[in-house]
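Hey team,

Filing this mostly as a record. A colleague (T.K.) asked me to run one chain through the structure pipeline before their review meeting, and I want the input and output archived in the tracker in case anyone asks later how it was produced. No errors, nothing strange. Just documentation.

Input sequence:
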Amino acid sequence: MTISILLGFIAAVVSLLGLKCTNVGLSDEDEKMKVAVTGGFLFILGGLCSMVAVSWYAAMITAEFFNPLYTGTK
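Output structure:
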């Protein structure tokens, strides 16, 4: 989940640099398009990392619930 948060932050910064209205960094529109696409890819990668973390936690909780030897509260 930490990796997902970091990727989301980096993706936001990269995407802001790729906007047509910003003059920071690159001035060529083709380069800005590539930077914006890279930011979008990082957003998707961060979302996938988040889905993995949430699914892993849900699977762990489900396995503990159906475990007959689990002594905790159900």
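Quick notes for T.K.: The chain has a mean pLDDT of 91. The two ends are 26 Å apart (CA to CA).
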